[in-house]
Design a protein that fits this description.
Strand content: 35-45%
Distance between the termini: 23 Å
Number of domains: 1
Number of helices: 4
Oligomer: single chain
Structural class: alpha+beta
Number of strands: 8
CATH superfamily: START domain
Order of helices and strands: EEHHEEEEEEHH
Shape: globular
Largest sheet: 8 strands, antiparallel
CATH class: Alpha Beta
Strand order of the largest sheet: 1-2-8-7-6-5-4-3
CATH architecture: 2-Layer Sandwich
């Protein structure tokens, strides 16, 4: 069972939290290094074919996924704010309506890092559509794999 917590937020938000047994610097490295991203993102449902990351304010990212039955999709976005403790970026999946603004806080205490993520959508209808894709389960699986990767570091 995943350790990801899906919390309540504003009507147009999805809020998730996860604690990693690793220092913040390792978590950030794993979340911003293309070779490492390919090892954990997508969980067990998909394979990451492409991970392009320009991790700076104004930089962009692009992840191309393939499911086990061959369906391909991508996420793209632009970094608006980048620091050790807080990252803000946009997120858009293919041609789906709307673009989320994702704010991630990374807090370190006693060698563990708490990730607190808020995904804000233009409307609650778009939020419901995204949540209905099973994204929370996929995020939980991805973070489980990230935890495994961090344990190897």
């Amino acid at each position: 069972m995943s350790k990801l917590k899906v919390l309540s937020g504003a009507p147009n938000e999805i809020v998730m939290e996860r604690v990693f047994d690793a220092p913040r610097s390792l978590v950030i490295k794993a979340m911003t290094t293309p070779e490492l991203i390919k090892r954990w993102l997508g969980g067990v449902r998909t394979t990451v074919l492409t991970a392009e990351v320009d991790y700076r304010v104004g930089g962009s990212y692009r992840y191309v996924f393939r499911t086990h039955d061959g369906y391909q999709f991508q996420f793209t976005g632009v970094y608006r704010e980048v620091s050790d403790e807080r990252v803000v970026h946009t997120e858009k999946m293919d041609d789906n309506p709307g673009e989320a603004v994702v704010t991630t806080r990374l807090t370190e205490a006693n060698g563990k890092t708490t990730l607190h993520m808020v995904m804000a959508f233009d409307t609650d209808e778009v939020r419901d559509m995204v949540f209905g894709t099973g994204m929370a389960d996929g995020a939980g699986e991805s973070y489980d794999k990230l935890d495994e990767l961090l344990a190897q570091s």
